[in-house]
Every structure is written in structure tokens, then in C-alpha cells.
Amino acid sequence: MKIIFILYFFISASYICRRGKLKHKFTRQLTDHSTFMAFINFPLYIFSKIKTTPYLETHSVDNLNKLKDNWEIIRQEALALEQDGLISTSDKLDDAAFNSFFRKGWSRFYISWYGAEIPSAMIRSPQTTLLVQSIPNIKAAMFARLKAGSRLGLHRDPYAGSLRYHLGLITPNDDKCYINVDGEPYHWRDGEDVLFDETYLHEAINNTNCDRIILLCDIERPLKFRVIRLYNKFISYVLLKSAAAPNEIGDKTGGINKAFKYIYQIRIVGKKLRKFNKPLYYFIKYCIFLGLITLLFF
């Protein structure tokens, strides 16, 4: 049984590493979260009902036209949130999913998150919240701002059970503000939308003097068989719901984010060690990695 699991792990990890034109260096990929998530994600790619390409047609999944048709209503609520300073970051270490983005000029206001309770969304943005709730294949949604002059470097999102949808609301309408998915750029425009696979390497760039605000949604990946759809729902409920983060007091904070402020202390120590002695940092990092591999497989 252990041999079968090891074989499956290496097949799935090899598949993930070979996807797309853009790839991490081997040493980076070795410890990247996508390697460790490969055995979970592999069935979601293999049994996907739609193409597993970097970009997809928005009509390849149901109901997204409902958002685009109402983009001006959504935009008005985004403007109100922005004027009240509510599309924001968090300094409480309670948002593990996006903590690394905050210092790079990215901020958010959650509308929904994998079934977690977000009372502030209905209070602050009722029409957008009702629209999102009326579309069952939307699993998470938020307003996301990328400040002028900001850049989010190449990264992958960890879970393949969803696709990423962007609807331009308040954008520079300039080719210097764009997302690059597996080497292919898309330039945001007001009222226009795009659907892509966020598990390809991608980056976001705003080389303009204007902030960019979009509606960002996680759309459930269409899958071929009921058992795989149930598998996706289970993983989403167990793993992603626990990553819920609050907009304001009264919103739910998931278990992962409750623990994150303690776990992050290890990261702080690692940063200090890397600054003090980079070779020692990498030696310890790869020893830990090899130790985890040994525990898993031997």
C-alpha cells in the first residue's frame, strides 16, 4: 500500500511540475505548496469537465453572465466600500491565504468564503452579496484592490477545485495594469471579465498611477463524476472553510487563521536566520523537507 501511495505521489507531483510554460526552478518547486498538494489536486485535473488551460471562456461555466450584467451595481458598492476604507489589509495575522500580499499593495473585502459566516458583507454590500448567493457555483468572492505601482510576483494558488473569475470594476483601463497567467497577459477593463486557472503560475502588475479594484470569485470547477464532485466539496469544506478571515468584528475567523498568528512566528525566525546566514537557512529548510518526506514515505 505504501509503495502505491509513493508511486501516486510522484506521478501527481510530476504532472503538476510539468504543467504550463512557466515553471519554478527545481529547488523552489521542491518545497512549493503545489508539490505537497499534488496528490489532492491530481484527480481534479484528470476528471475536469472543462479544459485545463490557463484561460477559459467565461461561458464554459454556468451563471457568470449574471455578474457581468450587473457590474455597475457591483461597482457602486465597491466605490462605497473604498470610500469608507473597508477594502483593506489586516495587521492581526488572521488571513493566512493573503497575508503575504498585504505588504505588496493588495487588499480585500470578503463577500463570501466557502460557507463561512460574513455578516459584514450583507451589511456593507447587500446587493453584491445577494447576487453572489444566487449563483451556487461561486464558492468565494471578494472585492480586491491592487494599488498603483504594485506587483504580486509569480505564484500559484494551492487548490485546483476552483477556477478564478475577475470582473473589472474600477480599473485604470490601461495595458500597464494586467495579470499574466502562464505567460499570457490579460488587461483589466471596467465591466469586462475573465476566467482562468489560478493553479498555473501567474502574477499581477499595476504599473499605472491608479488603483485597480475588481470582483474576484472562486468558481467551483466542473467535474465529470459525482464522486469527484463530492470529493471536491469535502476538501473545500474541511480545508478552505477553515481559512475564513474577517472583514470586521463579528465575522467568522477559521481555525487555520486562528492558529496562523502562532505559526507565523516560525516564519519570522526563518526570515531572521536567512538574513543572518543564508546557507544555514537553506540547509535547515531542506533538512526539514527531507524529514517530512521520510515521515510520509518510510
How would you sum up this structure, described in words?
The chain has twelve helices and ten strands. By secondary structure, it is α+β, with helices and mostly antiparallel strands. The chain has one domain (1-298): Sandwich (Jelly Rolls). Strand 6 and strand 7 (184-187) form a beta hairpin. It starts with a helix and ends with a helix. The mean pLDDT is 93.
State the fourth-level CATH superfamily. Answer: B-lactam Antibiotic, Isopenicillin N Synthase, Chain
Strand content range = 15-25%
Order of helices and strands: HHHHEHHHEHHEEEEEEEEHHH
Strand order of the largest sheet: 1-8-5-10-3-2
Apparent shape: globular
Round the Cα radius of gyration to an integer and report it.
19 Å
Structural class: alpha+beta
Largest sheet report: 6 strands, antiparallel
- The helix fraction, in percent, is 40-55%
- Mean pLDDT, as a whole number? 93
How many individual domains? Answer: 1
CATH topology: Jelly Rolls
CA-CA gap between termini: 12 Å
Helical run tally? 12
The number of strands is 10
Q: How are the secondary structure elements laid out?
A:
Layout: H1 2-18, H2 26-30, H3 33-36, H4 38-46, E1 55-56, H5 65-69, H6 71-83, H7 99-102, E2 106-113, H8 119-124, H9 126-133, E3 138-146, E4 151-155, E5 162-170, E6 177-181, E7 184-187, E8 193-196, E9 202-206, E10 212-220, H10 226-240, H11 255-276, H12 278-297
Antiparallel strand pairs: 1-8, 2-3, 3-10, 4-9, 5-8, 5-10, 6-7, 6-9
Helix pairs in contact: 1-4, 11-12
